[in-house]
Write a structure and sequence with these properties.
By secondary structure, this protein is of the alpha+beta class. It is built from 14 helices and 42 strands. α4 links the parallel β20 and β21. Belongs to the glycosyl hydrolase 31 family.
Length: 797
């Protein structure tokens, strides 16, 4: 059967001769017999493989299986090497029964120590009871089968395709429970990955590239959720996470099945048994770390642009926003405020008086955030630029292969070197620099950009080596075709390992270091915004979707993107409102400001050379619509803040797809043009140009229009809502109490304003809710948590 073929030539350029040299089968699929080679090598849209594994392909068998305190330790061997160099013939398999809902599989070299991802995950030494899942192991060929006890549904099954474990090519496949998947980031794609009739490849390797489909983007999150469809009407859910930081392809096929192919490390795979989607997310976040609790002031409206150019232009925009009566809680600046693009500087000519301006803002209850890139200029006169001079003295920069000299790339200031944030000395150096900078520019948070890490040349100014770290025998299908494209040579050396192993964690370690530095400097809850992320980054940083475009396509795409970020544990996330690249329009920016008012992180930011898009630049009519959206956001911030508290303590998402709350309603599985804020607020935005109708799904439940309080009578089906541009489609779910507050001019001034409870009764006349409240930025979170439940309420709007 064509759907059961597993690709024996995942690298491009397959031919019958090459295939058979690998001892694999070559046959064109029946329905694709007239396809040309170009169809086989398309970047992401893979098809039925022409070269595939035979049933007798050499693989491993068990030679010993011992019971341990954590579960089982199995030794597997094979006698024949396969087609990749440096095949490892002797492996150890640890089956770790970590909790009743979490099972871990570790496969590694029995003899030689290999790189393992330096993420602080739980270490479990005592086997848990297997109440939810059952594990079986096949001896020859070796395979692992994990099933759900209650239903018999397969959660993991590696018997479909040979396990291959070479030094720089590791492959393991598993059957999926259904072709309906969610997750696998960071990619621009619909929320639902439906492979019912589709073969698909997803590539993982952090890359500085503008938002686009079918491309490896800024972050790496190899976690997915799989729906388990059955005839009982009760949909269970499970998840998988492969803890691997090397460049990787994940091939999906409509059998349904998936194949992980990575070029380093070990197999370290978690199975989360749920059975609800929120259970799976809690189980995943227990491994990678819970999301951060943001300072309260960061929930306000953020305004930035690359290209203010002068302090006069910056103050003109600030005054324009003030005169138009818009709240701006956080003003940002981009790299154009730097002196010659040098980190930890500001241009005292074009931005003279910037420190005084920031102190004036702070006295008015506002906040300021600035940008820092990791690339440190290496060409300033000796003794004139402390970040380089001190870093060189301390030896904290990433070095060339087999050398103590820093590797030199190029970013905005010209030739640059790159701090190694895996080195403890680098964290001390970074903290000292940020502290000195803060004395001059009193920032309230830091924006760390270009940290994939980005490089304007491939590898370095001197090129890269010819060894296998820079030229592996197999290269996943990364954008640019090479793992050194527009980043550092992967042979470069870091404190913990080679850049080959640590590349995709660069942003993770920089965010962790910046978070720690700000805690030390500010003595408050830190705010960090990072472009590049890895699994667990949400514990340290906020994230945004990067360089999007001013288009209605990108307006829509922001919704599934941010929903996925929440799944990955980055609950405080957003997209560039009104678009980063290109000129926006009044209609697009108005609709985007309305949608953005329901992003967890709300920032309007655009690129140099584009037209101004701060809200005050548009017509009076557009401004009123934007103000209405901002007023709605600010009124609901106590509810938002409570959601962030719950995310950081009990691992619930802040925004979520509809299927999270209605998993047995198949109509919700593919909805990504609407979303829920927490479990109680349904947002159905207008995402189409020149349209005043929103075709929205209203789940079977009690819903009230907000803010009118009118109950929706048509539920459990799609409804065409009349939505002129001034209308905001927001509905409150019955059974919930929403804490609200009357907004002030900004969040600092408005902290003491009166609260309001919005009570939306369920069909049975009940409602419940809660409020978390503290001083807003203490690290210890001096807090009050209040919950309400009962029947004796009126609907307060």
């Amino acid at each position: 059967m064509d759907l059961a073929r597993f690709d024996c030539h995942p690298d491009d350029g397959a031919s019958q001769e090459r295939c058979e040299a690998r001892k694999c089968c070559w046959r064109l699929p029946m329905q694709q017999g007239n396809l040309t080679e170009k169809h086989r090598t398309n970047f992401q849209d893979i098809s039925v493989p022409w070269c595939y594994y035979p049933s007798d392909f050499p693989t491993y068998s068990i030679v010993s299986n011992e019971t341990t305190d954590f579960g089982q330790r199995i030794r597997i061997v094979k006698s024949q090497t396969t087609f990749m160099p440096n095949d490892i013939l002797d492996l150890t398999v640890d089956l770790i029964y970590e909790t009743q809902q979490r099972f871990r599989i570790r496969i590694y070299d029995s003899v030689n120590k290999r790189f393992e991802v330096p993420l602080n995950v739980p270490v479990v030494e005592k086997k848990a009871d297997m109440t939810d899942y059952e594990v079986k192991v096949a001896q020859k060929p070796f395979a692992i089968l994990v099933t759900r006890k209650s239903t018999g549904v397969t959660l993991f099954d590696s018997s479909l395709s040979p396990l291959i474990f070479a030094d720089q090519f590791i492959q393991i496949s598993t059957r999926l429970s259904s072709p309906l998947l969610y997750g696998f980031g960071e990619h621009t794609q619909p929320l639902l990955i439906n492979i019912t009739n589709e073969w698909k490849r997803l590539t993982f390797w952090t890359r500085d590239i503008g938002v686009r489909p079918d491309t490896n983007l800024y972050g790496v999150h190899p976690f997915h959720i799989n729906l388990e469809l059955n005839k009982t009407g009760q949909t269970n859910v499970h998840g998988q996470f492969i803890l691997n930081a090397n460049a990787m392809d994940v091939n999906l096929q409509p059998l349904p099945a998936l194949t992980y192919i990575t070029i380093g490390g070990i197999i370290d795979l978690y199975v989360f048994t749920g059975p609800t989607v929120q259970n799976v997310i809690q189980q995943y976040w227990d491994v990678i770390g819970k999301p951060l609790m943001p300072p309260y002031w960061t929930l306000g409206f953020h305004l930035c642009r690359w290209g203010y150019g002068t302090i006069e232009n910056l103050t003109e925009v600030m005054q324009r926003m003030h005169d138009a009566d818009f709240p701006v809680d956080i003003q940002w600046t981009d790299i154009d405020t730097m002196d010659s693009h040098l980190d930890f500087t500001y241009d005292n000519k074009t931005f003279h008086g910037l420190p005084e301006l920031i102190r004036t803002m702070k006295a008015e209850g506002k906040h300021y955030v600035n940008i820092i890139d990791p690339g440190i200029s290496s060409t300033q006169p000796p003794g004139t630029y402390p970040p380089y001079d001190e870093g060189l003295k301390q030896g904290i920069f990433i070095t060339k292969y087999n050398s103590t000299e820093p590797i030199v790339g190029e970013v905005w200031p010209g030739p640059t070197v790159f701090p190694d944030f895996t080195n403890p000395k680098t964290v001390e150096w970074w903290t000292k620099l940020l502290g000195a900078y803060h004395e001059i520019i009193p920032v309230d948070g830091m924006w760390i950009d270009m940290n994939e890490p980005s490089n304007f040349v491939d590898g370095s100014h001197e090129g890269c080596t010819t060894n296998s770290l820079d030229n592996p025998p197999f290269t996943p299908h990364v954008y640019g075709g090479n793992i050194t494209a527009k980043t550092l040579c992967t042979s470069a050396q870091q404190y913990l390992s080679s850049h080959y192993n640590l590349h995709s964690m660069y942003g993770y370690f920089e965010a962790k270091a910046t978070n720690a530095a700000l805690r030390t400097i500010l003595k408050k809850r830190p705010f960090v915004l990072s472009r590049s992320t890895f699994a667990g980054s949400g514990h340290y940083t906020t994230h945004w979707s990067g360089d999007n475009t001013a288009s209605f396509t990108d307006l829509y795409q922001s919704i599934p993107t941010i929903l996925n970020y929440n799944i990955f544990g980055m609950t405080f996330s957003g997209a560039e409102i009104c678009g980063f690249n290109g000129d926006t329009t009044e209609e697009l920016c108005t609709k985007w400001m309305v949608l953005g008012a329901f992003y967890p992180f709300m920032r309007n930011h655009n690129a140099i050379g584009a037209k101004a898009q701060d809200p005050a630049v548009f017509s009076w009519e557009a401004q009123q619509i934007m103000k209405q959206a901002l007023f709605m956001r600010y009124s609901l911030l106590p509810y938002w803040y409570t959601l962030f508290f719950k995310a950081s303590t009990i691992s619930t998402t802040v925004i979520e797809p509809l299927f999270f709350e209605y998993p047995n309603d198949e109509n919700t599985y593919n909805i990504d043009r609407q979303f829920l804020v927490g479990p109680a607020i349904l947002v159905s935005p207008n995402l189409v140009s020149n349209s005043s109708i929103v075709h929205a799904y209203v789940p079977q439940d009690v819903w009230y229009e907000f803010p009118s309080g009118i109950q929706i009578t048509t539920v459990g089906q799609y409804v065409d809502f009349d939505t002129p541009i001034q209308k905001i489609n927001v509905h409150i779910r019955g059974g919930f109490i929403i804490p609200m507050q009357i907004p002030g001019p900004n969040l600092v001034i408005g902290r003491g304003n009166p609260f309001v409870l919005l009570v939306a009764l369920s069909q049975s006349g009940n409602a419940s809710g809660s409020l978390f409240w503290d001083d807003g930025d203490s690290m210890g979170m001096l807090q009050v948590f209040i919950s309400w439940t009962g029947k004796q309420y009126a609907v307060i709007i």
